[in-house]
Design a protein that fits this description.
The protein is α/β, with parallel strands linked by helices. The chain has seven helices and eight strands.
């Protein structure tokens, strides 16, 4: 297995997600934020590229409006930001859509992108899926991401169900999913994370369902 050439992408760790209807529920931000900062500190120590992303819904929007306190990065991330980080403001779910993030990764000879931040059910999911067509391998840190409760005309899913279901989905095809401690060990050892695949996940899933 080749040595991964990694970059860490910190997605939307903005104040919008720490209170109100979009407050991260699972893992709770009190738990996930320390894991995000741990990943950032490990990436900095290892000298791998770091990009920090902020989502904008436009000036005057009800959420993610530039110029409002909610748009700003959480202080734990802002205090770690350096001039070497790539800073990006995006308008879509995926970090790649409408940005130069893919070009930046290629210029830095990156082939493996590690995603942390918010939300599992939106920007993490969209970024991991789009990366496939761009030729990047993706890693998602399960305890350094988070989801919210969702309800609409299609149904209801609590944040834990949303988070664990989507990470299982991603690990079956689009990403290697692991916790932050496992990732930091792999980073130190220059080792790739091992994900699953659709076939193996399907077989394992079938074995867990009682046959009629």
């Amino acid at each position: 297995m080749s040595i991964p050439r990694r970059a860490l992408i910190v997605i939307d760790v903005q104040q919008q997600y720490f209170s109100g209807p979009l407050e991260i529920q699972y893992p709770a931000h009190q738990e996930s934020l320390p894991m995000i900062t741990k990943a950032v500190d490990a990436a900095t120590a290892a000298g791998i590229p770091v990009a920090v992303i902020q989502h904008s819904a436009g000036v005057g929007a009800p959420v993610f409006a530039p110029g409002t306190p909610e748009f700003e990065l959480h202080p734990e991330i802002e205090s770690r930001r350096t001039g070497e980080w790539k800073s990006v403001v995006k308008q879509y779910g995926s970090v790649y859509a409408g940005t130069d993030v893919a070009d930046w990764l290629r210029k830095n000879d990156v082939d493996t992108v590690t995603l942390v931040g918010y939300m599992t059910n939106n920007c993490v999911l969209a970024s991991a899926v789009e990366a496939e067509s761009l030729g990047f391998s993706t890693e998602v840190l399960s305890d350094a991401t988070g989801a919210i409760n969702l309800a609409n005309d299609a149904g209801f899913a609590d944040a834990r169900t949303v988070h664990t279901t989507l990470l299982t989905l991603l690990n079956s095809n689009w990403a290697a999913v692991a916790d932050t401690d496992t990732w930091t060990s792999a980073l130190a050892a220059n080792r790739a994370l091992k994900g699953s695949d659709l076939g193996s996940s399907a077989v394992a899933g079938a074995e867990l369902v009682p046959q009629a």
